[in-house]
Design a protein that fits this description.
There is one protein chain. The protein is of the alpha+beta class and 422 residues long. The chain is built from 14 helices and ten strands. The protein starts with a helix and ends with a strand.
Length: 422
């Protein structure tokens, strides 16, 4: 090739390179490379995996942890109100509120503290049996018994794990309650992008631009957009997961947590490691098991938290969910995620007719639903509690249950925490 032709070819390549330069994505402080413009080229994943902890999140975690250090040392003998005031602390993580030991909520820190004070004062005063849920007072006492260094380390670990799962909370609030996503959500959270190109590039999964001032609380109102992405009518009338043969009844009165975890992991690995093993993983004591630990162990010891299933499990406050939204969440988990739910109800005879006595907070493994023409919709779950094991005079309770979905919803909301592991 002659020298003039080489010169012309080089000049043409230079012009092309300069023309494409504005389209090259530029890195941001925390997010690295990102496409220019809005998120139209991406499709929203319904089951985000673990994300990154941004600088803003780290600063908020530091603030909450250091606030605990500045609080006078509490003791297990302090009144419930003082324990709540010193230990119930919440963080704003990317616009969602996470409270230590409680989970993700739409309530303010003051509202959560007020609720916890009532729960701590009345803990176990209305039940005759305890099946293994760690109640509010015992949870506060457990934290109060820790050294300042141990408490700071535990708080930091819990908040860091929460920060990495915040995209899952946004997606659930968006798809179940219609809460709009921030305009830059998929830019800030690549873990929430579905694999492959968008099927409908013109579809907009974000809220429209707004010149209005931000609300005083960072979490959007769940009534902002009433229409969810997918409705109950979009799901089959019946669906189940998990093998009914891979079930067990709890062998200690306070082991509903380890037994539920046993069945959750058994359903994933098809290997039964026994309740003792999971009690150790969960840190279960005679006081019970925390739902935060149930979620932590599910994420760390099964594959149910993979993006191909549920994504990272979170403790989600469903106190503001309608029954239809709660049922939709169950359907989504069983059909879209093909993964179990960690039910967290209170065992009362008014909700569970098979009980001989009212009992405490409890864990069950949600695994199915069935809509029945002209009859109430039912949900299916694995029930670890068999009262007959501990009192032969009481009726036997089967492991596999099909029960009125509305009663299960009411039992969930009647629990002081009104939360669920999803």
């Amino acid at each position: 090739m002659s020298r003039p032709r080489l010169f012309l070819l080089g000049a043409a390549l230079l012009v092309l390179l300069l023309a494409l330069t504005p389209l090259v994505p530029r890195g941001a402080e925390d997010d690295g490379l990102r496409p220019s413009g809005r998120d139209d080229g991406w499709r929203l994943s319904t089951s985000p995996g673990a994300g990154r902890v941004t600088r803003a999140m780290r600063a908020e975690i530091d603030r909450v942890v250091e606030a605990a250090r500045a609080t006078p040392l509490s003791t297990v003998k302090q009144p419930a109100a003082r324990l709540v005031e010193s230990q119930v602390r919440c963080a704003d993580l990317d616009g969602q509120t996470y409270c230590l030991g409680i989970g993700w909520t739409d309530s303010t820190q003051a509202q959560v503290r007020a609720r916890m004070q009532v729960a701590a004062r009345t803990a176990r005063t209305t039940s005759t049996e305890t099946t293994g849920d760690l109640d509010a007072l015992d949870a506060l006492r457990r934290t109060a018994s820790m050294s300042p260094a141990a408490r700071a380390g535990a708080d930091r670990r819990e908040l860091t794990l929460a920060a990495r799962s915040v995209a899952k909370v946004w997606v659930l609030r968006h798809e179940i309650q219609g809460v709009p996503l921030p305009d830059d959500f998929l830019q800030k959270h690549p873990e929430a992008r579905a694999a492959g190109p968008a099927l409908q590039p013109q579809a907009d999964f974000t809220a429209p631009p707004c010149d209005c001032s931000p609300p005083p609380t960072p979490t959007p109102s769940p009534t902002a957009t009433p229409t969810p992405e997918k409705t109950i009518a979009d799901y089959p009338v019946e669906a189940t997961i998990l093998d009914p043969a891979e079930t067990a009844e709890q062998t200690r009165t306070y082991w509903c947590g380890p037994t539920s975890m046993q069945m959750i992991a058994w359903g994933w690995k098809h290997v039964d490691k026994g309740q003792d093993y999971w009690a150790g993983k969960l840190g279960t004591t005679s006081a019970g098991t925390s739902i935060v630990d149930m979620v932590r162990v599910t994420n760390g010891n099964t594959g149910w938290d993979l993006p191909s299933h549920a994504g990272k499990y979170v403790v989600l406050d469903v106190g503001d969910f309608t029954f239809q939204q709660w049922l939709l969440l169950n359907m989504k988990h069983v059909v879209d995620y093909t993964a179990p739910l960690i039910y967290h109800p209170i065992l009362l005879k008014q909700f569970y007719p098979y009980l001989d006595d009212d009992a405490s907070g409890h864990y069950q493994v949600g695994r199915g639903y069935m809509e029945r023409e002209g009859k109430p919709t039912e949900v299916s779950y694995f029930e670890p509690w068999n009262q007959q094991r501990f009192d032969p005079s009481e009726p036997f309770i089967s492991r596999v249950q099909w029960r009125d979905a509305y009663r299960s919803y009411r039992a969930n909301l009647a629990h002081p925490a009104h939360d669920i592991g999803v």
